[in-house]
Amino acid sequence: MNFASDNTSGASPHVLEAIVRANAGTLPSYGGDPHSVEAQRRLCEIFAAEPAIALVATGTAANALALASVVPPGGVVFCHEHAHINDEECAAPEFYTAAGKLVGVPGENGKIDPDALRTTLRRFPRGVVRQAQGACLSISQATESGTLYTLGELRELTGIAHENGLVVHMDGARFANAVASFGCTPAAMSHEVGIDVLSFGATKNGTLACEAILVFDKAAGAALPFRQKRGGHVLSKGRFLGSQMAAYLEEGHWLDLARHANAMAKRLADGLQLRNSVRLPWTRQVNEVFAILPHASIARLREAGAMFYDWDPDYLPVAQRPGPTETFVRLLCSFATEPAEIDRFLELERAAD
Amino acid sequence: MNFASDNTSGASPHVLEAIVRANAGTLPSYGGDPHSVEAQRRLCEIFAAEPAIALVATGTAANALALASVVPPGGVVFCHEHAHINDEECAAPEFYTAAGKLVGVPGENGKIDPDALRTTLRRFPRGVVRQAQGACLSISQATESGTLYTLGELRELTGIAHENGLVVHMDGARFANAVASFGCTPAAMSHEVGIDVLSFGATKNGTLACEAILVFDKAAGAALPFRQKRGGHVLSKGRFLGSQMAAYLEEGHWLDLARHANAMAKRLADGLQLRNSVRLPWTRQVNEVFAILPHASIARLREAGAMFYDWDPDYLPVAQRPGPTETFVRLLCSFATEPAEIDRFLELERAAD
Amino acid sequence: MNFASDNTSGASPHVLEAIVRANAGTLPSYGGDPHSVEAQRRLCEIFAAEPAIALVATGTAANALALASVVPPGGVVFCHEHAHINDEECAAPEFYTAAGKLVGVPGENGKIDPDALRTTLRRFPRGVVRQAQGACLSISQATESGTLYTLGELRELTGIAHENGLVVHMDGARFANAVASFGCTPAAMSHEVGIDVLSFGATKNGTLACEAILVFDKAAGAALPFRQKRGGHVLSKGRFLGSQMAAYLEEGHWLDLARHANAMAKRLADGLQLRNSVRLPWTRQVNEVFAILPHASIARLREAGAMFYDWDPDYLPVAQRPGPTETFVRLLCSFATEPAEIDRFLELERAAD
Amino acid sequence: MNFASDNTSGASPHVLEAIVRANAGTLPSYGGDPHSVEAQRRLCEIFAAEPAIALVATGTAANALALASVVPPGGVVFCHEHAHINDEECAAPEFYTAAGKLVGVPGENGKIDPDALRTTLRRFPRGVVRQAQGACLSISQATESGTLYTLGELRELTGIAHENGLVVHMDGARFANAVASFGCTPAAMSHEVGIDVLSFGATKNGTLACEAILVFDKAAGAALPFRQKRGGHVLSKGRFLGSQMAAYLEEGHWLDLARHANAMAKRLADGLQLRNSVRLPWTRQVNEVFAILPHASIARLREAGAMFYDWDPDYLPVAQRPGPTETFVRLLCSFATEPAEIDRFLELERAAD
Q1: Strands ordered across the beta sheet of C134-140
Q2: Nearest residue of chain D to residue C241 (CA atoms)
Q3: What is the pTM of this model?
Q4: CATH of the structural domain C254-351, one choice from 3.40.50.1370, 3.30.70.100, 3.20.20.370, 3.90.1150.10
């Protein structure tokens, strides 16, 4: 019953086997191996595009390098005020963008409000030397609240960004879960709605340590390999990254994993929703469930070994915040979560009454 | 017959098995897992010290983060003019040290000349505002020429550094090979001779993608985890790094691997040294052989599939450079190199006469 | 009738004469001249302290270098959400702090709210690697709203900061106006209430281009000269800076200038306050008047050549924002503002009825 | 008899008067004043070009911002191994270029050797991810040895640079002295021979604290104002910079000043050349004289109050270095040096026999 994060599991068996297979023999280093080449080929195929691509071992590196590819030194990145890049990455985006500035934009349900974005942009007028200049809009899909922008919402935001001379980055740490939830193509949720640069997450969804950066305008991504090396993110035994990504993308494996994680979260949310004493402030759309639970349930669950994090109630509108006998928690399901774990969790929660 | 690099092999079977075993089940993320804890314990034990430790996936990250731990923004790092950090890491050390400056010091056989170091230090007087201020001396052991500083030579260099207010970093990408060659303890070649911060390489010697940074003054390394995260170098599924390092250090495995690689290089160097038409400009001490070979041999070997790199003849004193019908090459052996490969290489070389 | 800024005037005649006098003859460069030495002596005397001191030509340099002196690479600077360092300096603080992060804290009347500060600090827990670590609290005195923290309020904020391991910076671009308003000593408004580093503004108050940075813990400021040089902020003909600051501090000249500017603003505020059609949302305390004026007045004044900036109504609580026929403006007085200008302004404003 | 530097004098009387005149009244801030506009107009006129222009207060800022305009983060700047940007600016170029790397190229007489440049460039191949990528060639005219590249030599170097995809920067700290020496047009020594970006020095030649940056491709310089602000180099009372540069360029004043300084240095060099006991290792071409003098002369001169710096003998070929009873010194003349000072110096030197 580990619902702490989708990174508390290891790699999917299919991915692990690929790593093992790729370990044999001598191969060119620094990404020249056939596994890395195959990974790139599959990414192009799946996205129906010819982007500049880099494989890296962490999501923070993916986001920071993706942003650095499109943000000039000291440029401004607009993002949701609770975006992972703003709150959880120890100022890595600032570091990689040569001291860029992250500016938070408010919005309910973890989603950037278009009007709030327009208002914020007016505070950074073009050509006024006192103000750092806007460079990028970063959108998280799924959001930090486990919600999803519709394709129309994405198009609206990228439209505002492009009108204002910004490039658009998507933090797709849970891109697979979002695509699985929509049933759309990867292209439809990225370059077709105006995403210029994508952090294509995979570690949370079944690789051991592998993410991809896709810069859809290949020429714009020309410096990506050098930035990657300068950040210390080019693995000498590149086969490790290549084999993971190639296996992850093989025959829809990545979507199978995501569909499973989403389904587990749905099972959990459905179960909790039946309870009068439990509230789910945000609609579950991917593999994350945010819930306000009675203290009694929390105690019972943790006593039984269930693992999950308390979440910051300030992220909720005042009216929805937990009462004095409640706690706001995040429950994450992964490709490895089993139905029995969900059922046991729900049973324990009910038993706390 | 792949002598191109010691990173063209995968992980040693023992290390790979440990990765596989560690993949099962849920574990705390970001280095809180028992494998990472065990890796740290073994590093402390082997070095007979209590350093601040970080595990990272690349050697460039290890060097750059190690330097950043001890170099203030814009500080000067003195190193051999052909040091890997100066020549081969795409300015990652400059990036991580907040625009530090690398200053090359000459010296034969890939080793910093103590007198040249003293002369160079005089060009960077303390307290003169026009000059960037010296912060660090970085020593590669083994060197880029495959040679070794004696412990006495290390002590001389660290002495000069400390007298001049510098901390001392060791780029130990091939630390294991050096220790295996000397038969000394890890402590004797690091903190006991005045090394303050060590990049403890492992990837070239049998891990898949894992290196350690050791800051021997633990307090001085307090910011290391934050710098690591800020660089995007904290793996969420930390078990991947921890399991590799723990297995690598288990029951002397790391030294077994290094001894093998060294022995293979010895076999190769010994064979080449019997040949009148071949010259070895630098004495072989670890797993690298640098040789000047006749064009005919080169052609024959490559035709037969042998892989190795041409090396820059400018690194040699003028008198030792290759003649018009010779080429300077680097030949690297790894833990996976087999005696038969060496023998076949030597045979082919001889047959070119 | 130029109320656009306190930097639209040149230097005070006394300061200008000092520049002219200092121009004669040869003198040591890079701050070794007697004028710079005298400026440092006077700063020590006036502040009753022995800080590390640097003279620079711009306020942005003063703030950015002051922050860089106390913020490690990537550290967090907490400041009011509308602080000059956050809003008006083109990300110079981020640049100089090696990609530090500025985090805005709300508060009415331009002043950081202590509770909001405590709440914000909780979002950046110590030792949690995902979060950039807090390094500094920056307080503007006077604020961007022309208001003043009382000495007690300053002590409360610096107390919170120090408890949380932060050093405290004061952006004293209008430090002189604040001291003149309070009638306190410079020490009482800086190191005695817990300010660790001060940007001591002078350009807005009568120098041509000269500010001072004071790091009250002299040892902590040891690297200041090198950071200054690295930023390109050491003037070769240092006499230009030294002569300005020495003259500015001579016989209370700096306070005479500030008292005059404050008195002019008072005359203006007093006049406006008599008018029913005008609102002053923030109490005037230094040389800045913020007023909501009817469109008719605005038009009349600008037609007559009065110069001043519209101000962002979003900085006001919703209830206080200008109505559809009003505009929010900022009116700045300087050492050079003449009573007749104020009277003419008031007369024109009244005549718009 | 101050020959220590050309920055030990103040401003020329003509420049000082302009500063005084410009001080009166209110004017737009941040460079919007008529003096700054006129300065820009004159720079365009004198260079027969429409560059992007910035005025700054220091030479270090001029060089660092000029380089930052054309060097992407982490790019390599090639320059003479003893270039001011490499040796005397406290790593400011590295700071402003977001951790760029300066690579020294050898060459006699302070001039980059074209063959050495070609050799060095081969060490930084395009597209090889291990190597930082070349971005810029920086040429000092006049050099740190007081020598001049001929226009042909400049064209050769810029040709090599452009063929290799580098932009070319000229550090023109003594540009005026060089133009005065050649009698050519400013255009002929800059954009017409392939210079892309120029640091146009003025402080050493008669302003108090003002230099210009010219990016000849105006579009390429679009970000210059933002970089300038981000560095803290936009003066609020911009009239101070504008009035200096406008006066400096008025009716050839700048060239009059430079011709005088050059003539004084010629008088000094001519006098020294008559002496058997004195050697001038580098031909005097501008306002700098480098001489090897007997200890007796040095002692006599310093006793009489002459000021000048010892210079690093390692900058000379071994055969030309001072003997055991000699010292290598640098003697600088400025616009303010008087013939009587030269004559007195020569007399004292002769009297030491």
Answers
A1: C52-56, C211-215, C197-200, C167-172, C134-140, C76-80, C101-105
A2: D209
A3: 0.97
A4: 3.90.1150.10
